[in-house]
Amino acid sequence: MSGGLRAGLIGLGAMGRNHARVLNLLDGVELVGVLDPAPGGAVPGGVPVVAELEQFIGLGLDYAVVACPTGLHEEVGLRLAEAGICALIEKPLASTLEASQRLVEAFESRGLVGAVGHIERYNPALQSLRSRLEAGELGDMYQVVTRRQGPFPGRIADVGVVMDLATHDIDLTAWVTGAQYTSVSARTSRQSGREHEDMVVVVGELDNGTVVNHLVNWLSPLKERSTVVTGERGCFVADTLTADLTFYANAAIDNEWEALRAFRGVSSGDMVRYAIPKREPLVVECALGDAGQSACGCSGRVTAASSTRSPNSTTWFVLQASTAGRSKRSRPSPPRRGWNDEVFSDDGDRLRQQPSAPRDCVRKDHG
Q: What domains can you pick out in the chain, each with its CATH number?
């Protein structure tokens, strides 16, 4: 529609085509142009497709959605900031932590809205889960376990599973729990012969004492997207493929039937699947807010204040821990042992090396 915010889109890949569809649906937003160098790109409604960034900037945009390959995010984002154009940049924000910080500074120094597109924050199951955790329905939190696995997507060539998929789990865990990571240990694997890792297992701890575990891979024929939060009163299970949220409660009464006690345990109680409104996450993410600005500014806003331990920098900390093949910490703490019995100081320097397990006992990738 005309008369609203003038939006542009960079990239007509799988995610870009979804953004084009949603931008054409939004009230108060007019999609006025798309940048994609591939010939033959088409967008519903006859929106012009240009091949050069300067042509795109010349369309007179209020904001742009950046959905091009990760390796181009810094170049494109810096030029948009220089031109005074706000941006929603799909995750990961950039291909390195240093590039991410440069983007943060570019938008912040000009007073522009810059955002990272963490779509899982808008999944109905996770939004309901976050509200219930904030209300104290689970009591004390003990553990967060996420599983994100499935077949390899042929369209991904520039990053591995840490940057393409684990970014979701790292961000949603901190967002849902309202806590930050204090430590991470990780292992990666390359089973398919590609340059980047296709599996990662992450173990970590949050600043509220919650233990976290993330299993992410491109090696399974089973597509799975689950988040399980276990706590004092039971556990929540969020399935982000179906947007279902289920609660498994601890039993309020003891089970006196000995055979069932042995089979099910004494704390197995009621199971409730919640009826929650289900709107498409991308539509919610990109919808207009009450202030008349794009809600993209609420999705992991890029500011100097948040960049110190932003979801993107935490992801890079996990990646560094993975490729180094050892445990690393994100804030000062007493020395602790790494995966191979290495002991590190609070700033990550190795203090001493202890005898480690045989190298063939664990598959890992040292980068």
A: 5-119+282-308 (3.40.50.720), 121-280 (3.30.360.10)
